[in-house]
Amino acid sequence: MKLFLSLLLLSAAGMVSAADVPRFDPKPVIERKISLGQESSLVLAQDGQALFEIVLPAKATRVDRFAAEELAEFTGKIIGSKPAITDQASGTVPAFIIGDRDLALAWELPLDQLDRDGFFIQTKGNQVLIVGNDSAQLDPKRSAGWYERGTLNGVYDFLERVGGVKFYFPSEYGIIIPKRKDWSIPEISVTDRPDSQFRRLYCVGVSFSGDKTLHMPAGMDANDTRRLTELRLRMSTLNIPNCHGLAKLGLVQRFGETHPEYFAVQQNGKRINGTNPTNSHEIEGQLCFTNPGLKEEIYQDAEAFLSGKPATSRNILMPDGKVWWNKNYFSLPFFNIMPNDSNYRCFCPDCAKVYDAGPQAIADHVWKFKTDIAKRLQENNIPGYITVMAYSNYRIIPTMEIPKNMIVHLAVTGPWNEGAEKLQQRDEALLEAWNQKLGAKTYLWTYAEKVMCRIDGIPSFTPKAVGTFFHRNGSKIFGAFLEGEVDYWMFHSLNFYVFGKVMWDNSIDVNQLLDEHCRLMYGDGASTMREIYSTLEKHWLIDIRSDVRETNLGFKAVTPSLHEIWTKIYSPEEMARIGNLFDQAAKEASADQECAGRVQFMRNALWQPVLDARKAYEKADNDRETWHAYMLPASEKITIDGTLNEKAWETAPVYWMIPRAGYVKAKDQVEVHTRIKMLCDADNFYFGIAADEPHTDKMVAAERKKDEIELWKDNLVELFLAADRTSPTLYQIMLGSNGNVTDLLCLPEGLDSTWDSNLEYQPGVVPGKMWVAEVRIPRSSLPDLKGQEFVANFTRGRVLNGAEFALPYYTWIPFRRQNSENCGTVTIGNAPENPSIIKYGDFAEPVLNKRFLGEWGSKSNWFGDKLLKRDTEIFRTAGASIRLESDETTVDTLTQYLSDLKPNTRYRLSFFARMEEVSKTGAVASGFYANLRFGGEGLNQTWNPLSQTMAGTMDWRRFEAEVTSPASVAVKHKPYLQFNLRCAPGKVWIDHVELVEIK
Ligand SMILES: [Zn+2]
Predict the structure, then answer these.
(1) In CATH, which superfamily holds the domain spanning 29-193?
(2) Which of 6, 250, 509, 591 is the most buried (most CB within 10 A)?
(3) What's the rounded Cα separation, in Å, for the pair 368 and 386?
(4) Residue 264 alpha carbon to ligand 1 centre in Å
């Protein structure tokens, strides 16, 4: 990239007029030359003794030093003894000279003509020179960074090419080191550099549960693994920033108040200028690309930055209150003007015209803003480049010319569309069209990441697709970014390895690469492990990622439901088959201890998460039955008037909303209660939702048309209805507190607003107390809900203007994602009698005499050692739970006598518990536990369903355990179930306790 680099330097210095800057089109400059002699002439080791030295020149950088240490480390492992690192060649033994640029000059190795990231390896006499261009600013022990490290790349190349080392992933299990007690090497003359000039990876933790941990195998640290992966896979060192730069110029801070017209107008007339953001893409504003004042400001910013002026010259006031250029977005000679994410449409009259005119007009509109700025910079001889992405509604090619000082970064799904032929063909046609438009190559942003496809614990392990995709498209691109967020690092380890290899040398055959990998890693277990690799890749790429539907907005990938994943894709039979393959590979590899260790390591890394995820799914599926509601036939005519005053409403069972998961993890505390009731008759379903609200005067309700999606931004309740949990379609009905309605049919490929529920809806308000949604829906409008049972969820969005509150979202069933899988069950008819021999298990009844809960005179009342603390803010069901509180020396208990307990009978106990900062003390049985005492004679008279005392902080969790009662019960004393918080400071909540005979 020498040619390209010098142009950049010249233009940055203003020596070439910007109008003459050629299109950014980097290519490999120096020819790749690999020459290894036939004879092994240089002796590096005999009998396990290293017979060479590693020499660092006086001017060695930290890169050179690290390169020398890596060379010593791995050659030492090859031989069995580590060579010395010195600062002077002794002349008596072979010497590796690391990063000596003066020597390179003397040997006529043209460092100044070397591509960025390239290197030379050259032998002469008993010396081996490994040298490239290195930056004095980089410390590879701390980070990879955007700094040159050609010498280090050369050392890794020597270790791989000559030493046979493989850096699959940074762990003893992922690095292959051939052992050579006697080692001689031939004459070497290598000139190498990457085929692709931009090679970048990104990986952080992501999971659907909201857990942002990047799970690493034992012994691997996430930061070290990332750093060493980037270094050893020789990622590129030139930063070409290109990611939402217009969100990073402090526009909200600089112009939010003074120039609101710079910002996009919403339908409700408000500007998205950073005030009252409803999501992260609104915090830094959304822009009006028609506004000439805005264009002028951005132009001036770009001119100042590219001319080397400080941020103060433009007052780039950032959200932290300081004035600075963010180098992740603006790095000479590049200035990024990609719009903020989501790129909202602006509803100002001029923009509205554009948006009505269709996709090409929209793309042209956004591109005109950008190309005008680039053109003006060119005309004014400002050096450098404007970088932009082709993404979102400006991904298609605009009709106007793209100035030569613009660099386009094209967003395509990439490797993960290898199973979706139509989508892939469309993207590759677009890439080709962009090449033609620019008359040059472009670079890609690709998405092999789990942000958009969050299925916890399923391996997104697709090395073959990564290799195939970049190999096929190598000639059309000068590089790529592989975005790779994932829950478990190891799922992507080989994706990254293959990416590094194919981007460096595009001719690589990925099948050969994977065959070699399996052979070296697993020995005789290679072919079985290769089959496992192919199986995991097929499940992700074909079975999970390739269902592409054509919609009126284009193609859309549809992810299967968890039910489909665990019954069809990773079905019990398929999981048994894969488990057997691991058994088989372990057996085959057993003769070689290292290979056997790697099979076991990969089994833990790739397969254990699947086993764990299946368990979690089965538990969640089972827990969902807690949310089972009954819809009673109405005994009278229901008038839809916004009050639930008919007798039928009064007798209908009540269901309560709880905080929506992910919003108040630390507290789980409702601020207001929301109660749901349901009724039906032959022709209609009725839903009545009473939402307590002290601030009925502050409820947000915009003026809206029917079926406006944006209704979710107002104060509202929503109904979700579907046939069953496997149903791909879901009815969604939004009911605004001022009477607005949006009813939609949610299909896997998107929302259909043409469906109409034909509902009758009337909200009612009791000022300062609550608002009520009463709705009638004809059953004929819900053809999916045919049987006596369907599934549903109910949510509430509490949106107030001018009132302080912490929790905006409530839900009936505590799952984050709104789909039929995450619904509770609704049965039409009376609730059957509760089979639980525990009574009042939902704690819905009042506390009596401070120590009892239940009914006067009942034998089955709950009672406590201390006063009973019924908590109506933190609960799972029926609006209340019981809270236990203790300290170092006292015990808090919750007990119920079991008057109906039978001997020799199988029972299932289940309950929800939650803990807050419970800390054990030295006292006996300190902590939280439960026990059931049978009260009979002989053995097994006590059962501890939690199996151990618990402590710490725990989110609400459902416990379930089974026991068979002994032959003798209730002889010595009355049987009872007791929850204890014993001699442990902290709090525990208990809810929805059931003890059911298993028949
Ligand atoms: Zn506008």
Answers:
(1) Chitobiase/beta-hexosaminidase domain 2-like (3.30.379.10)
(2) 250
(3) 13
(4) 5
